[in-house]
Each structure stands twice: as structure tokens, then as C-alpha cells.
Amino acid sequence: MRSSRARSPRAKERGGAGDNLAVSCGARILSFTTMSPPAPSPDRRRHRVYVTRTTEYHVRDGVCVAVRDRGTDGFRHGHLAERQHATRLCLSPDGMQPGTGEPQPGDAIAFQAGERRLVTGAIEKIVRPGKTTVERYRA
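Below the sequence we write its predicted C-alpha cells.
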């Protein structure tokens, strides 16, 4: 003797995220609420490396903490950019204009040290330094 009940589960969905879903499995009905994905959290990482064609500028909280020559892979101690605040320069048809926010690939960075000003070449990429690299920064 066969039962009149369907052997495969039937599912009914209503609405989108955050709504109740009901799944019917024979005589049992299971009900649950879907979860919405969590809101994105702010980026709490403090270190960034701005890579230009010849140089890496290691920046912590907007201040240059180290400069590395890409050709020799050695840090350049006493570089003009060290301990200076990094300012974003956006390249435009009218030249370089100060920008707001974090520097992006294609931008340049300016470092002001008293009367002297250093402007980098265009940023090729932005990476995160590894823990061993961060430990090599001078205090």
C-alpha cells in the first residue's frame, strides 16, 4: 500500500533575505529565518606600500616609515620621505592636483620636508607589507 504523501521534499520560498523560509518534508514543516550578510567592516590595517617604478614607499597611518630601492631591495635610510606625511597627487590634463582620500594606482605622492618637496613617480600598485618586513622598519 502506497502513501499519498510525496516522497520528495517540497520547498516554498517567500521574499528575499531576512524573510522566513518554510520547507515541507512530508508531515514536518521546518521554518527558519535567512541571515543577511554582515556589513563590511572598516579597514583597520595601518601599513601600505606604494610601489613606483624604482622605489617602494612604506607608509604607516599616512606617514612614510621606510623607503626601499626596488633595484637593490635595500632600505634607504635617511631618505627625504622618511617621517613625512604622504599627500595624494592626482594626475590630470592640467598637471598634478592635490587629491583627497588614499592614493590610488596612477596617482603620485608628495612628501614635504621643510622647504624641500619630493614628488614620486606614478604609483604602479599598492600592496600590504608582510610581518617580517614591518619588523625591519627602523623605530
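Residues 11 and 23 are 5 Å apart (CA to CA).
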